[in-house]
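User: We ran a pulldown and think these components assemble together. Before we commit to crystallization trials, I'd like a predicted model of the whole complex to look at. Sequences follow.
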Amino acid sequence: MSRLDDELRKAFKREQPSADFAERMLKLVAQQPEPRMRWWRRLGALLEPPKLRWVAIGVTASLLLAIGAAQYRKLNETVVSDKVTTASKNPENTENAHPAVKSPDSSKGEPERGPFNVKATMKRAPRPANRRIEPARARQEREMRAEGQAAKESLMLALSIASSALSDAQKAVHDDGLKP
Amino acid sequence: MEKGTAARLDDTLERSALGDQFAFEQIVRQHQGMVFSMACHFLRDRALAEELAQEVFLNLHQNLHTIKSPEHLVFWLRKVTSHRCIDQSRRQKVRPQVSLEDVAEPAIDASENDLFLSEMLRRVVDTLPEKARLVVILRYQEDLDPGEIAGVLDMPLNTVKSHLRRSLSSLRDKLSRTLGEVTL
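Assistant: Here's a predicted model for the assembly, 364 residues in total across the polymer chains.
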């Protein structure tokens, strides 16, 4: 390194502005209107590393909850439709279950119910008198139970995945917090 | 840079971007020397340099959300200060274009007085064209290598190198003519 280099370094060493520069700067900044972030910048800011983690956790949890809810709904619909089918095979039961359809007078004192109020149907349906349909019903019930079991397992799997994803994320966040 | 320091600087930057005035003040205090010195060495006017530094920090305050890291912040400040210096110099147009030959001869022996030599060097650098002057300031004030200077000034690397070579050569010529026996 030549002496010229050294002399240039000395000549161009850093200098400080007046002592109150920072204070004056802050006053000036305070007088400025608040900078507004455009909506796409806000959206972009969500996708930056520290926030992206929370967005990913939220999206994963929402997705798993939606899948769980969809599975539950599907299961419920299957059970309900099976029950409706079963009930429609027993006209006596259906008649008993839906007095509003055949004889509105007989339902005095009770709220009027529609023909497809399955809950009421199932509550009111007595055991079938006809013993010949017993094997068919038993088979149906077995199938329903199997489907229900499968749906329950799917739901439990979805919930356990959601739970493990959330606990992993929590652990990652906790570990990040412990880092110096 | 230590990991802890880097994390703290990142945190300061993030808080500042979220509107924390105290964090912004820390950033100003940390970098005011760099910004002010670049402007001061380029413009050779303390009042103008302070004004320019204020403009640069105001601009920073409005663009804090675009700054990604402390390194990016320093790069951004150097770049904006350089551009502002050139703008200011062109806007002024009052700056006298002094040729190397017109620089005052020293009245005393430079080896006896470092301050005098420094002032002499600054005055000679002041006669260089804008870009060449900025290259010299970034090289010797900020200790940047030619590659980094090329990034800050958006210039090809070879142009930076040739600016440096030519500037140093003319500085050496002028100083050896002026100071005679002093070998630089």
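Residues 106-111 of chain B have pLDDT under 50 and may be disordered. That may be worth checking against your pulldown data before setting up trials.

User: Thanks, that helps.
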